[in-house]
Amino acid sequence: MTAPAPAAPPALPAPFGARLRHAMDTRGPLCVGIDPHGSLLTDWGLTDDIAGLERFTRTVVEALADRVAVLKPQSAFFERFGSRGIAVLERAVTDARAAGALVLMDAKRGDIGSTMGAYAAAYLAPDAPLFSDAVTVSPYLGFESLRPALDAAAAAGSGVFVLALTSNPEGAEVQRATAADGRSLAQVMLDHMAAENAGAEPLGSVGAVVGATLGDAGVDLAVNGPLLAPGIGAQGATPADLPGVFGASAGNVVPSVSRGVLRHGPDVAALRSAAERFADEVRAAVGGAGAFRGDGR
Amino acid sequence: MTAPAPAAPPALPAPFGARLRHAMDTRGPLCVGIDPHGSLLTDWGLTDDIAGLERFTRTVVEALADRVAVLKPQSAFFERFGSRGIAVLERAVTDARAAGALVLMDAKRGDIGSTMGAYAAAYLAPDAPLFSDAVTVSPYLGFESLRPALDAAAAAGSGVFVLALTSNPEGAEVQRATAADGRSLAQVMLDHMAAENAGAEPLGSVGAVVGATLGDAGVDLAVNGPLLAPGIGAQGATPADLPGVFGASAGNVVPSVSRGVLRHGPDVAALRSAAERFADEVRAAVGGAGAFRGDGR
């Protein structure tokens, strides 16, 4: 009698950066925000309540989760309905991931020590109800305060997107301030991210949030990680602006559009067409291997 | 037939700063955090799951909401259980406010535009499930990005606590950076708060989060608003340190203790005794009108 063969070790999850690169190359490099504004619910003919939130969210997921690279629910619009809103968010995350989209939870969390660890447990632990492929975080407490999230993401094959340089005018007060060594704070954050991503192939798992409406950003964006660029569409930037802002890093940009797509709902075909147009425009502007594939394969 | 007398206008809520001043003067100037760490639940003989979370939270509220000035639930520890955790948080907020405590939601939210508006709707709109007396926010996107929260708080008689200068060592990277006019970023934030609170009596409603373990903070803390000082107890600061850190503003300090009180649970009387000891020590250190009143009046 021979001993049974040892069980195979559990498969490690592929790193987020690799999964994102694959999704961008096959589905086109586009992130669509799920931002259930009250006014948007009304425009869709829905009520601004939990029923409207649920209908809106399920429609967006149904329309787009099998074809766009990333869906980005904006946590704030679910939190305003308390626990019932979070239940809708849980289902959206689960359904979107099951359909093959990467889910980036836009929560911009930031705290220290065990509290940051609890946020990591909420969004980056595989057994959490809101387990996501990545989460946005805010570094006002210092980049190293985010370490529990960075560690949890690495263990789970997930990603972390750190606020670096945003396009709202009032952000310069903080992000263009000067660190002790003369760098701008935005550059300090970007340099931390580059260090985290050093050596990662084909792309690191620590991303930067960088506004797409900045013109020349005046910082070094070569972080070897994804660059989430909100502001496409309603905020005034177009895909054609991306090379001017991001230069040699344009191929790592994940442009994010929200109202520019969502305003075409609730018709599913119209939502899909709008997302496809944006993806095509992005690919035309920045290059990229894959054609946008409506079936997501 | 005479016209009916016009209905009295709805009573405006008293501003948060006034309500907080009254609570600190009558109940003693202490904030107790509700931080359901997994390890703390275990120490209490509870399971680290939704049942344990619920039991822990209800016990803390039962023990302290009728006697401490402020209860501060840490949102992260509820978010890790998804919508069911948020349901526990909703009940805690409602029960604590009904028992007379002011509830400060420690969420450190921060975003721009309509997203910041949605966070304000989540925590500062009176009809929201998580409506709180105040919320903590993070200014990495610039102080003015917080305007929707400041406006919502003013309308509801609620408060906003803005991260300014934290005591974690990695925070200096950001908070001690230099703004364009030479001030530190922490000072820039404090000056914004002072402007918001100008003329408010007896205390403004925009507070600052300032670490209590800093030694001399090296910034001007005269913001005419409350100064939330986490770090009492487990993080190493004692009430006796407060005058050295906060100087002439020590009377506006809301010292926050979490594990230093919570580790005495689950016994209700022991939790109450621990909170009373801290409140007495704070009053001895910084003065203050009111004696700690176990009945909360």
From TrEMBL, chains A, B:
<dbReference type="InterPro" id="IPR011995">
    <property type="entry name" value="OMPdecase_type-2"/>
</dbReference>
<dbReference type="GO" id="GO:0006207">
    <property type="term" value="P:'de novo' pyrimidine nucleobase biosynthetic process"/>
</dbReference>
<keyword id="KW-0665">Pyrimidine biosynthesis</keyword>
<comment type="pathway">
    <text>Pyrimidine metabolism; UMP biosynthesis via de novo pathway; UMP from orotate: step 2/2.</text>
</comment>
<dbReference type="GO" id="GO:0004590">
    <property type="term" value="F:orotidine-5'-phosphate decarboxylase activity"/>
</dbReference>
<dbReference type="InterPro" id="IPR018089">
    <property type="entry name" value="OMPdecase_AS"/>
</dbReference>
<dbReference type="InterPro" id="IPR013785">
    <property type="entry name" value="Aldolase_TIM"/>
</dbReference>
<dbReference type="Pfam" id="PF00215">
    <property type="entry name" value="OMPdecase"/>
</dbReference>
<feature type="active site" description="Proton donor">
    <location>
        <position position="108"/>
    </location>
</feature>
<dbReference type="InterPro" id="IPR011060">
    <property type="entry name" value="RibuloseP-bd_barrel"/>
</dbReference>
<dbReference type="InterPro" id="IPR001754">
    <property type="entry name" value="OMPdeCOase_dom"/>
</dbReference>
<keyword id="KW-0210">Decarboxylase</keyword>
<feature type="domain" description="Orotidine 5'-phosphate decarboxylase">
    <location>
        <begin position="29"/>
        <end position="274"/>
    </location>
</feature>
<protein>
    <recommendedName>
        <fullName>Orotidine 5'-phosphate decarboxylase</fullName>
        <ecNumber>4.1.1.23</ecNumber>
    </recommendedName>
</protein>
<dbReference type="GO" id="GO:0044205">
    <property type="term" value="P:'de novo' UMP biosynthetic process"/>
</dbReference>
<comment type="similarity">
    <text>Belongs to the OMP decarboxylase family. Type 2 subfamily.</text>
</comment>
<keyword id="KW-0456">Lyase</keyword>
